[in-house]
Specification:
CATH class of the largest domain: Alpha Beta
Order of helices and strands: HEEHEHEHHHHEEEEEHEEEEEEEEH
Number of domains: 2
CATH topology of the largest domain: Beta-lactamase
Number of helices: 9
Structural class: alpha+beta
Largest sheet: 6 strands, mixed
Oligomer: single chain
CATH superfamily of the largest domain: DD-peptidase/beta-lactamase superfamily
CATH architecture of the largest domain: 3-Layer(aba) Sandwich
Helix content: 25-40%
Strand order of the largest sheet: 14-16-17-12-11-15
Radius of gyration: 27 Å
Number of strands: 17
Length: 380
């Protein structure tokens, strides 16, 4: 039969009872595209046209930097390596690092020219250094997007310069931002630097959230006439991290306001709750014809959920298994399932595993167990 563990249900209700209640509210933003996700749980908190292709402008440089970070992590590229500046890179318009033709610039400076100063010249110089040409580098950007699971993104240049085929979705930019933070902890802090000086020209980081005490430590702004004003940002506060993408706004002021509002809403309306620790026993199950009569069932990985605070007392958790389980049972064998339902979220199901090995009784033991069952029944 399938059983539900009432003791587990009580425990979960007590855990979620700590959250406060407030009136549920709808949310919207003036941005044409928006995406907000919890870094730890991958729970999407808000989305608007998140899967519609859009021009990312200079937010494209997150992928440009990602490829450079990979080269550095592998050892194929070093921060002290020098990059020769071509006339092609020097001539590029738009935002600039202000490199000079035939200068040799350290990779560490080029990265800051791309990330902090949003220099198109720096991005092209890096692309030419790594792949020979910007076009070849753009092809590699698209290939890397596919490798990372970004099925829609297509890059035609290293800068985000307007091109009708140069597109990505807000959801994909959010995933790329998360992967940057996860995969390159030693290099990601460059995104938090508020200014960089090169050739005696000091330029500030364009990310408005770096200056308002919100807890932001990256990533990148973008702006073209076709794209409007955009921002991909990450904010860490009170043990949580949110990743946000906004695009298609009409001014830098609107971008700053909408970004602050969405981030503050995400932290205010949602919180993370740990349901089970890694390896924690969830329930005990009766065993039939085994040398032990009870089996502990555990969850392999920590379960942490992002839940809207107003829904915190409505979470339903049940355990499902067939009882009694027939011996023999191997350690680590799947013996049941834990199901968790959060309002307005997809039902989650996690396998339960046998904590210990239980051998089958010998012939005489099985006979005695059968007689005991006939006389006394299955019990409670």
């Amino acid at each position: 039969m399938t059983k539900t563990a009432s003791s587990l249900m009580t425990a979960v209700i007590l855990i979620f009872g700590l959250a406060y209640s407030s009136a549920s509210i709808a949310y919207d933003t003036s941005a044409k595209h928006a995406f907000l996700i919890d870094f730890d749980t991958n729970q999407v908190l808000f989305e608007k046209n998140a899967d519609v292709l859009m021009p990312p402008a200079s937010m494209s440089k997150i992928m440009t930097a990602y490829l450079a970070f990979e080269e550095i992590k592998s050892g194929r590229l070093k921060l002290e390596d020098k990059i020769l500046i071509s006339e092609n890179a020097w001539r590029k318009g738009g935002s600039k690092m202000f490199v000079k033709v035939n200068d040799e610039v350290a990779v560490s400076d080029i990265l800051r020219g791309i990330i902090v100063q949003s220099g198109n010249d720096a991005a092209i110089a890096l692309a030419e250094h790594l792949q020979g040409s910007e076009a070849a580098f753009a092809d590699k950007m698209t290939k890397k997007a596919r490798d990372l699971g970004l099925s829609k993104a297509k890059f035609k240049n290293a800068t985000g310069w307007p091109d009708e085929e140069h597109r990505i979705t807000a959801r994909e930019l959010g995933l790329l931002a998360k992967l940057t933070i996860m995969n390159f902890p030693d290099l990601y802090p460059i995104y938090a630097e508020k200014s960089f000086t090169f050739n005696n020209i000091k330029q500030g980081n364009r990310n408005p959230l770096l200056y308002d005490g919100s807890g932001s430590d990256g990533l990148k702004t973008g702006r073209t006439r076709a794209a409007g004003y955009g921002l991909t940002a990450s904010v860490s506060k009170a043990g949580r991290r949110l990743v946000m993408v906004l695009n298609g706004m009409n001014s830098s002021g609107e971008r700053k306001r909408e970004a602050r509002k969405l981030i503050e809403w995400g932290f205010r309306e949602y919180d993370n709750y740990k349901i089970f620790d890694k390896g924690e026993t969830v329930t005990d199950i009766d065993v039939w014809l085994g040398k032990d009569s009870r089996l502990s069932a555990f969850i392999k990985d920590e379960i942490k959920l992002t839940v809207r605070r107003t829904d915190s007392k409505k979470v339903k958790t049940t355990v499902h298994y067939e009882e009694p389980l027939a011996a023999p049972i191997k350690q680590g064998q799947i013996v049941g399932a834990l199901k968790i339902k959060v309002p307005n979220q997809t039902l989650r199901e996690y396998p339960l595993f046998a904590k210990q090995r239980i051998e089958k009784l010998g012939a005489w033991g099985r006979i005695m167990a059968a007689l005991n069952y006939l006389v006394w029944g299955a019990g409670d």
